[in-house]
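Technical annex, item 7. During the second reporting period the consortium partners agreed on a shared format for inverse folding records so that results from different sites could be compared directly. Each record opens with the tokenized structure and is followed by the designed sequence. A conforming record, contributed by the partner at site C, is shown below for reference.
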């Protein structure tokens, strides 16, 4: 059984920071975490979910949505089976339920390519 569990969301004022975490577990997925590309997504008007950031299996390659560039940083610790999203200079429009996802392959921005999803962690940014 594959589990992705997000944490770290909360209420923060505009301009503040949050660090989201996503921990992977499961008898097969846990040890295999290091072979998965990981991504963060959030709902958006007119879309099921929009891409925020992604990282390849080694952490050597990352990609960001334009809305996240310069403010968010994705990273991972394969030994801990965890991926992070450091969110700085938060804006009210960043308010959303943030989901992490795992893809057994290359880094991608396409949510349809992701195999496993967490339940999400809520981020609320007040103005």
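Designed sequence (site C submission):
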């Amino acid at each position: 059984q594959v589990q992705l569990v997000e944490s770290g969301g909360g209420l923060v004022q505009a301009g503040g920071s949050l660090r989201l975490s996503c921990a992977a577990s499961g008898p097969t997925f846990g040890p295999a975490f290091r072979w998965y590309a990981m991504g963060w997504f959030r709902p958006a008007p007119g879309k099921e979910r929009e891409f925020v950031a992604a990282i390849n299996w080694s952490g050597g390659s990352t990609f960001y949505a334009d809305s996240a560039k310069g403010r968010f940083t994705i990273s991972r610790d394969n030994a801990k089976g965890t991926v992070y999203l450091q969110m700085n200079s938060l804006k009210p429009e960043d308010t959303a339920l943030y989901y992490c996802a795992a893809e057994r392959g290359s880094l991608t921005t396409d949510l349809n390519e992701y195999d496993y999803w967490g339940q999400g962690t809520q981020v609320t940014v007040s103005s």
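The mean pLDDT is 94. The longest strand covers residues 47-55. All partners now use this format for quarterly exchanges.
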